[in-house]
Structure of CRP-like cAMP-binding protein:
Amino acid sequence: MHAYEESPFTRKLAAFVALSKDELSVLERLHQRRRSFRVGIDLVHQGQSEQTAYILSQGWVCSYKIQRDGTRQIVDFQIPGDFLGLRSVLLRTSDHSFEPITDIQAAEVSAADLLEAFAQTPRLATAILWAASRDEAMVVEHLVGLGRRPADARMAHFLLELGARLLLVGIADKSGYACPLTQYHLADALGLSAVHVNRVLRHLREDGLVTFRNGHVTFDDYDRLIDFAEFDPAYLDQAGPVLL
Amino acid sequence: MHAYEESPFTRKLAAFVALSKDELSVLERLHQRRRSFRVGIDLVHQGQSEQTAYILSQGWVCSYKIQRDGTRQIVDFQIPGDFLGLRSVLLRTSDHSFEPITDIQAAEVSAADLLEAFAQTPRLATAILWAASRDEAMVVEHLVGLGRRPADARMAHFLLELGARLLLVGIADKSGYACPLTQYHLADALGLSAVHVNRVLRHLREDGLVTFRNGHVTFDDYDRLIDFAEFDPAYLDQAGPVLL
């Protein structure tokens, strides 16, 4: 087995397309320009016009927007298998920034690389469009969550979504996952204060639902947590390949 | 000139890709199965698994999610040139519903149609990925707006964004545009009550910024409105083709 068959990006796309040998080798070429980035140093800046995207293969990243008043809104977190800045390769300027939360490894991809890959295998284009659609569905869920869900349910929903995403690329199981996020990350993503995040996590732990401690999320009662969060994972669409 | 060269979808993609004759004829084929829908009757239901998308050629649509408590969150509005349910053609189930706000005309597109089009012209795949990325950038802007912008600025930003989108497909100019939205649509989209929408619109009108009356949005002072809303249209990325 080649290294690329193991890549989280390949694992993720395989949830949508049953990949052929040819498609796997096109994916391999997309992974050629491997780069490492250190925690805390932005890969792509909001407003930047350099047209490069990355496929994350190891580590965690957060994408955020800085408001004119200087406050930061975290848009989402990227985990292995996710694109970083697909929009910045297609749109003229990046509409947000990417900061590694841990040291990361990623493959650099240009617009020309994508175009070449799409020419070789149109199914791959559909798969990447699927992944982009799934990302948009997640942002929509966060929009709805911010508008409608109370803080406890919002946190529970968020921890379950992360778990489902990590499960898809093989770095979580139903008992939980390693998670490098701080309470400040959670606060900026969920529109809560750090103190409020603390209180919400204590409630969820004391209710026997989920424990987030020492860089690890443990699902204490997975089914009850899903019920509490009203979590329906259909929007993540990860039940197995649609295109055979 | 053929009808498809005039289609709003073609006009929109032309902002990203300088379309060749071959690409225009592939686009024509995507427009073959024309359908009409009446105001108020949903095209795609949340949870529906039929894999059909539409390219809107005439009229306005709103996409929304129904919460478990029965409340409706409007995710966005679709105008001519937009995809309806691109996600429902790619993901297994639709994560939201589409309701025509006016009578509409749209072309039906299946996953197979898309795959065939991508095989014929990979540049078109990139262009559609561009359009999907732009849609996601809009949802991110709405997320940020809901979290951070006061009601008056949120409304101003929303009316400017719609104006820019309509301008791209040739049905607005800098003085304003025809707009079939009701105050209930605005309320559900912006997270305000209908009474609050009324008050916000009165403020904006009395301040000489923008007037929304009798189905028409008039920009009374475009530059000052942009300043007031802190509207930076870079995320809409409509300054002319990137791929030549």
